[in-house]
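Show me any protein, keeping tokens residue-aligned.
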Amino acid sequence: MTGTKIGLLGTGNIAPVYIKAAQHFPVLDLRAIAGRNPQVTKALADEAGIAAMDIPTMLADPEIEIIVNLTTPEAHFDTSMAVLEAGKHLYSEKPLGVDVTEAQTLLRTAAARGLQVGGAPDTFLGQAVQTGRAYLDTGKLGTVMGASLNFLSPGHERWHPNPHFFYQPGGGPLYDVGPYYISALVALLGPVASVSGLRARPRANRPWANPATGQAQDIEVNVDTHITGLLQMASGAIVTMSMSFDVAKTGSRDIEIYGTEGTLSLPSPGAFGGVVEVSGPDRVWQQLTPQHGFGDENYRIIGAADMAQALRDRRPMRTSGDLMHHIVEIMDGVMHSAQTGARVSMQTAPKRPAAVDPTESWH
């Protein structure tokens, strides 16, 4: 198979993960990486055996068909627009935009130019969510009437070497981590019809020890860091969602789906694998046998691989721009509701992404 030529734009912490994961997908031919720092760009390129480019050179390269935008959230929109204006298909790290207006503008621009937009998260294509989905599709859980999504953490400054942007617009637990949970939810249960929300920002500053210098610093907090949403699915199911950077410890499960005949439990959708369990009327948890691959490593480029194959096959992408737009609208709706007290109806309703067929050739 001759791979679709792609380029990575952005050299942050996630770039090496994408580079490594690309090796698993013959449908992708990773040609180059571009960034603002020439030294960092060259070091990543040399290690991967690909070309190091500046951004204008990558945008002008006639061989590169898809550009993966790995820039930070505040730079996503301008970078993504530049990719589309250069005539390239766009695959964007999450979120697609910091608000619905940005997401809509990108999709309109792509449509006008005959281009496709896709994006992360793609972890719902991994083993855990796909195993859970396969069980749901058997009907053994009965009628699904509810679910819960829980990301409850003490904050990213506990592990990230440069956490400041997580506490600026476009960051926070909802916009940084929420897309993983919401994409998994839509893959499992379909689109969201309406949302409401509440928010809190308990600290104006957060202490942080710079790992490079050992010096204590304060991170200024300019986003809400504890958010609860209530989501009404188009199917009628009711979902609670809690996203927080302010919880020291929790015993909550990441995702639970509640049916009339049992409960399905899934691990964090920030990863591809993990234990999936189900409990029936006997109230005993039983581990499900994995039904799909992509659970043993970080396959953080699988969505771009699916995009490349979808372009060849002229079929819908699973990590489509429409899905990413829906995710942004849900997050915006939760925050708008938290500000106004009003329930917000969704204007988008993408189809539930197709299940991953283990026999598909792109992987």
